[in-house]
Amino acid sequence: MRLLTTVTLATWTVASTLSCGGQAPPPQPPRPPPSASVSSAVPPPPDPLGPRPEAGLPTAFLPPPPVVFTSTDGITVWLLERHDAPVVSCDITVPTGAASDPPGKGGVAYTTAAMLDEGAGKRGAIDLARAIDDLGASLGTEANADSSTVSLTVLTRHLREACSSA
Description:
Blueprint: E1 2-9, E2 12-19, E3 67-70, E4 76-79, E5 87-94, H1 108-115, E6 119-120, E7 123-124, H2 125-134, E8 138-143, E9 148-155, H3 159-165
């Protein structure tokens, strides 16, 4: 049985072959890559859709200034409104993550976050997923070292129904 190893270093390709159970063949000197001649290059075929338009420079993104307030339940809310798309995206973040797991119980924050979209009460994981999918919404959960987050993105007209499903 022979093993072939090829290594490409910048513009040189080095190949070596090793025979199992026998002696390796003598090393071959490295070969330079074949040079491509500009005159022999074939031009690409014309684009059937015609010339491509210039992309131009992207417009600068200026996020709206947040309106920060405290709800009647004592929750700090950052509201950033943009009314140019009929979409609502909500993120609920708590400042407790894996770093707050009790000693000897690592993984509690990650497991808790993973279970948040698995249903509750009479609605199981499949029922919850189907309800969110039927609305064209997305529900996500995440935990990291310092925080845990639940995210919901949905069309504005389905917000009330999505919040009651999630």
